[in-house]
Structures are given as structure tokens and as C-alpha cells.
Structure prediction request, 292 residues.
Amino acid sequence: MEFISIPCHESLRPFIRNYWMLNSWCTATGTQQIFSNGAASLQFYLSQDIRIDDGNRRYRTVLYHQNMQKVGVVTDEGAFNTFGVEFVPFCSRMFFSHEMTDNYTSPEELRDEVFIILCKSIYEADSTEERVTLLDEFFLRRLAQFPEGDINIERLCHVFDDMVPTDGSAARPPHCRNEFSPADLASTACLSQKQFTRVFNKYVGMNPKSYLRLLRFHKALMEIQSSSDSSSLTNIAWSCGYYDLAHMTSDFRDICGFSPSELIRHGQELTEAFGQKFTGLMKKKIKIENLI
Prediction:
């Protein structure tokens, strides 16, 4: 598997986190569970169509809205190469007019002819560099058409600057030890809590309380990934703002489908994401075999 992060045009960086390319191979038909990181994403499946949540419909391009619900991407055996875009959480609406009530949308469902033409060009492109150029040009044109007087984008930009530091951890307000509350965020945006919830839902795709819950989950996930001691889960739960380990376990099951201990066990068996058990194993094996 090869994953490459690719920077977008510098004028787009306040609104788009990055482009990326994933090259991998599926050994059999299976389902990959995707859980939200709070940001909408656009994915072009270059080598095969996919199905979602065991449905019959095939998709080639999907705009994922990233609410709190998990999505299962069903792939077939063979090459699985994907070109993607990850947006700043509240900025996908600057480029696409869509209601984020569902988990995902296809270009045809958006009825956006220019977007549909872009998708065709992305699949016909000969290289990643050509795809990057196509996306930069498309998003820069859309950005130029976006009304400058959208005060809600300004409000959300101010809120997210306070809420999510550059290291991706869940921020805490400077005036107290507790994490942000929806009321704190509404105050930062200079809106009533009811008005702010409506604006946040429209641009982000979930309510402020759910987004803060997601931030807390990812903060705990980073803590678990960096800890080699599974017995410290209770301490991690407390440090990340959960009432207790049972509360954190319930959140993990809702968001990613695994308890923290199950995630550690599967991660140690299959990935380099958790602990040191697997890291470097193949490099050591290759070196040994080269000496024989």
C-alpha cells in the first residue's frame, strides 16, 4: 500500500487540507469501514467502481459529507487506486451546493454538469500531476465565484481557529480547564446557540455537540496510538474529557465500530498504527533474507 499526500494550490490551502493518492491491492471482495474525521472528502476511484454499505449501486466518484455515521466501502479483488481531496471541515459548501443530510453524494445527484465533466477528465488523465492541475483549476474557478460577503464562513473560520489547533488535538478554552461547549462556540461566533447550531449544521454537516464529541474521540485515538500500555485506557478516558472508561468505550463503538481494546488488538495484528509490535518487522525480514 502506498499513500501520498499532495499539496493543493496555495490560494486553496485555507479551504482544502490536501489532495492525496492511495495505491493498494485488494486480495478479495471486502468492506472497508470509514469513520468520520469531521471533514468532507471527495474521492475518485480510479481502478474500480465501489459499492457503499452493501448496496447494489456502483459509484466511481463520491463526495463524503462526514457526519457521525460509519460508511462501509465494498471493493472487489484487484487494484484499488484512489485520488482524493480532503476539505477544511466547513468549506466544501464553498465549492458544491449540497445539503449534507446524507452520508455521501454522487456527481449525478448534485446535478452539477461542470463537476461531472471534471470527473470524466480526472479519469482520462494520464498522471497524478495532471489530475492535481485539473482540480486546482476547478476549485480556483469555484472560489472566484463564491460571494465575498458570506459572514457565516468568517464566523466559522474564527470558531475553528480557536477550536482545532494546528496539531489536530481538541483545544481547550483559555479561561477554564474544561473543553469547549456548544455555548462557548456560539459566543465566539457572536450568535445565539440556536442560530449557531443552524449555521454549523448547514456548513459542517453535524451539530456542534456532535463535532466536539468527534474531536474528543480523535484526541483519545491519538493518545491510544501513542501509548504502549493498554491498562492506561482509564487514564486516557479521564484526560480526554470522558466521564469514565465505559463512556469512552460507548463513543468508540458508535463512531468506529470497535471498543478501544478491540482497536488496539486489531491494530497490533494488522497495522503499524498501534504500538511497536509490528513496526519495522518487514524491513528486518528483508535484511535477514538478503543475507542468506
About this structure: Residues 166-177, 270-292 have pLDDT under 50 and may be disordered. The radius of gyration is 20 Å.
